[in-house]
Amino acid sequence: MSTRAIPIRGGRIEIASLPGGPGTPLLVLGGLETGLRPLAGTENVLQRRWEARTAARTVHVVGRPIPDDPADADRLLHPRVSADAVASVLREEEIGPVAIEAESGGGRIGLWLTVDHPDLVERLVLSAVASETPAASPMAERLGAWIAMAEAGRWAEFFARMAQVMKPAGAAGGAEAFEREAETWVGLGLHPHVVSCYYVRRVDGVPRDRQVGGDEAEHGRHHGMDHPRSLGDGTDGDAAPSDLDP
Questions:
Q1: Which terminus of the chain has fewer CB atoms gathered within 10 Å of its CB, N or C?
Q2: pLDDT in tens, 14-56
Q3: Of residues 63, 67, 124, 70, the one with CA closest to residue 89
Q4: Is 142 helix (H, G, I), strand (E, B) or coil?
Q5: Exposed e or buried b for every residue in 130-158, given b needs 16+ CB within 10 A?
Q6: How far apart are CA 159 and CA 181, in angstroms?
Q7: Per CATH, the architecture of 1-132 is what?
């Protein structure tokens, strides 16, 4: 795995690449755990996480923009500005169109990348993404604390605090939270670049959502993505077999 820093206007972006098969390249836009921490030095972790995906395609994990001037951080880290920076890297490196897998804060960047640079995006898969974080919300306070820890290099505390707020699916309120998120997804409707969620229901008391690639699935662009997903207690075997679906 190779990690390199690509110059962008006002700074640089790290990109870690794992060569793979001939399929559509996968662009990974992670949450805070990859968005705030430098990618250089974490290659072994990234390789273990993503190597299995390289059987079909090359995987590119992209960090957040790193400003040349710290005073420019607020502007450069705005999701839409970050998306423009990622787009410039993809064009410079002649990568794309790509399949984006994005979670949390990375999802906001992925959304803007899809809207403003549709020629670079073949498909977009989002996980746990909010459209915005209100300034006075508990999440905004949590993000502020995480950013402060990241800026101070207190990574052990960073990941310990993050683990405390990540409820296992089987924890109190976990199933209900999953259902609320899935119902919101159902209400988004169809979009050519977004995997659709058609319904959420419980099977043997376990919430499950049905994800389908919409009209693109007919052309094979979402091969392997027409499948049910279940919520369990975080142990192996949580995914329910597809034959439970009609």
A1: C
A2: 999 999 999 999 999 988 766 667 888 888 888 888 899 999 9
A3: 63
A4: helix
A5: eeeeeeeeeeeeebeebeebbeeeeeeeb
A6: 24
A7: 3-Layer(aba) Sandwich (3.40)
